[in-house]
Automatic annotation (TrEMBL):
Transmembrane region(s): 117-135, 141-161, 173-191, 197-221, 228-247
Lineage: Eukaryota, Fungi, Fungi incertae sedis, Zoopagomycota, Entomophthoromycotina
Family in the record: Belongs to the YIP1 family.
Species whose genome carries this gene: Basidiobolus ranarum
Bilayer topology term: Multi-pass membrane protein
Subcellular location: Golgi apparatus membrane; Membrane
Yip1 domain location: 101-243
Protein name: Protein YIP
């Protein structure tokens, strides 16, 4: 590549500058010589810095973040089901229901390691619905007795045991063991429970609920020697539900 004549920027006394050849004579000017070649000598390339036509961009692109995934059907990878996030774990509900219905089955001590109230609330609601269908609108009494009973049993268990138990686990055990009483209330749709048959079924249901719940409590709290002391107040609570089913 041939060396082109150098160009310079000339500064005069007034601060103005001129652009020209370095060989041009000018006594009143100072100049800075540059050894860079003329840019016009470089070969022109086919591409330009600024494109002649603007590139086309996809303006309808939808982000794939968590916000937009909430409005779609795909969801996020490894995302748990919605019912499980809301506390409805049907596997645990089934396992605890089987234990409540089969009190003679051995109970694992970690059965209440992950307590939930989804099953107990469902059973209380079903109990009230069966009473309503049999002509007994007792939703207020059902939830009132349930809340007061859970508070009372919670206080008694914490006074008797050294490790103690929280109210969440207490309500979970009492709610799951209410299932035999729910079955009794469903029989009230077909049978008249105010007679001898109803009395016998009520006693069986109370004993069933008491046996299951006391077994869970003594297993969780390691209080096998105090099982009868726990069964007494628990039996009184389930007797109140039986009275609502038979006589209310």
């Amino acid at each position: 590549m041939s060396q082109q004549p150098a160009h310079s920027v000339l500064f005069d006394q007034q601060g103005f500058y001129q652009y020209g050849d370095a060989n041009t004579g000018n006594d009143n000017a100072e100049f800075y010589q540059s050894t860079y070649a003329d840019p016009s000598a470089y070969p022109a390339t086919g591409s330009s810095y600024y494109p002649s036509e603007p590139a086309s961009y996809n303006t309808h692109h939808i982000p794939t973040g968590s916000f937009w995934s909430a409005f779609g059907t795909g969801g996020l990878p490894d995302e748990p089901p919605l019912l499980e996030e809301l506390g409805f774990n049907f596997t645990q509900i089934k396992d605890k229901t089987v234990i409540a219905l089969n009190p003679f089955k051995s109970v694992n001590r970690d059965i209440m390691a992950d307590p939930d109230l989804a099953g107990p609330l469902l059973f209380c609601f079903a109990f009230g619905i069966f009473l309503l269908l049999s002509g007994k609108a007792q939703f207020g009494y059902v939830y009132g007795v349930a809340v007061l009973g859970c508070i009372g049993i919670y206080m008694i268990l914490n006074l008797m045991s050294e490790s103690g138990i929280d109210g969440y686990r207490t309500a979970s055990v009492l709610g799951y063991c209410l299932l035999p009483m729910v079955l009794l209330s469903s029989l009230s749709l077909m049978l008249k429970l105010s007679g001898t048959l109803g009395l016998i079924l009520s006693v069986i249901s109370v004993c069933w609920c008491t046996f299951s719940s006391s077994l869970m409590f003594v297993t969780v709290l390691s209080m096998n020697q105090q099982r009868w002391l726990i069964a007494y107040p628990v039996g009184l609570l389930y007797t109140a539900f039986a009275l609502m089913t038979v006589f209310s």
